[in-house]
Write a structure and sequence with these properties.
With 299 residues, the protein is mainly alpha-helical. It has helices spanning 2-16, 23-54, 58-75, 92-104, 113-131, 156-167, 170-177, 185-194, 207-217, 219-246, 251-298; strands at 83-87, 137-139, 144-148.
Length: 299
């Protein structure tokens, strides 16, 4: 009897132990494979963009400004209320209000508070970059192009391209409205990180289990898919803006505008790719740590 009782106690003790989730390991993998490469590549792209824009002469800047102004006038975008604001120390309050307003409009106002807070944080980062002359943007919900004063003029046609997508074409406007789909990276990543990998031959228990299992197993591809509208819209904005100003500027300046477009496009392609890879590594790291813990318990 004592032997039987001892066996039962050990069995109960083994079953009562829970394996580690492995989430910590997965999260570590995500940080290492996303934040570090993204920080390095972003710094390189910003430096190259600054160097490119710093090479523009005063005459070239005037040419770009005139080409953009002429395109806005001839296309009817001026009549539709499109405005260009040069960000400087004199209008920081105006720029802040535009960014705050942008966070309050559109689909994001209907999303959960944590996502809205992340959106606000990202907008603040873009605001800081803009005021430091490292970024420009198109606030499409308020029909404004914001660019640092006397800086980044080579990207102005691209930002105008975003306005063209919004104001001149129904199909590209729909594409632009699909850009927030990239935020699906967040729930996809969380499911990949927290969902336990199915054992070989194990089948999902219900619809939710089946759905989350599918998301986990195909997380990298789903992340890429969620970013496609944003990447496509960025590329289309570059093409439209470049074609619109090309006839008004010199061939040499057109090459500089094209190089600026390429640098900007690379940043979006890299972001989508690195996030897909990081989600894959996070899921892989979590599963490995969880399995190691499970094997130790079952010994």
């Amino acid at each position: 009897m004592e032997g039987i009782q001892s066996f039962s106690a050990n069995t109960y003790e083994t079953r009562s132990k829970k394996p580690k989730s492995g989430v910590g390991s997965g999260l570590f993998n995500f940080v290492v494979t996303s934040l570090i490469p993204e920080t390095i590549v972003s710094a390189i792209l910003i430096k190259r963009m600054e160097k490119l824009n710093g090479s523009l002469t005063a005459d070239e800047i005037v040419l770009i400004d005139k080409a953009v102004a002429k395109t806005i006038e001839q296309s009817g975008m001026k009549q539709k209320g499109l405005g260009i604001i040069e960000a400087s120390a004199e209008n920081t309050d105006e720029i802040k209000k535009i960014f705050e307003r942008e966070s309050e409009l559109g689909i994001f106002k209907h999303l959960p508070k944590p996502i809205r807070k992340i959106r606000e944080l990202l907008n603040k980062i873009v605001y800081v970059q803009l005021m430091e002359g490292q970024n420009a943007c198109h606030a499409n919900l308020q029909n404004k192009i914001i660019i640092p004063k006397n800086k980044l003029r080579a990207v102005l046609p691209h930002e105008m391209g975003h306005a063209m997508n919004s104001l001149l074409s129904k199909s590209s406007r729909i594409l632009q409205k699909c850009r927030p789909l990239s935020w699906l990276t967040l729930p996809i990543g969380l499911i990949a990180l927290f969902k336990n990998k199915k054992a070989e031959g194990e089948k999902p228990k219900n619809f939710i289990d089946k759905t989350t299992t599918f998301i986990k197993n195909h997380a990298p591809a789903l992340v890429i898919a969620s970013w496609l509208p944003e990447v496509a819209e960025e590329g289309l904005a570059s093409i439209r803006g470049y074609k619109a100003v090309k006839e008004f500027i010199t061939p040499d300046l057109a090459k500089k505008v094209m190089r600026a477009n390429i640098l900007g496009f690379i940043s979006y392609v890299f972001m989508s790719a690195i996030l897909a890879f990081a989600v894959h590594e996070a899921s892989k790291g979590k599963d490995k740590a969880h399995q190691i813990s499970l094997d130790k318990i079952n010994k």
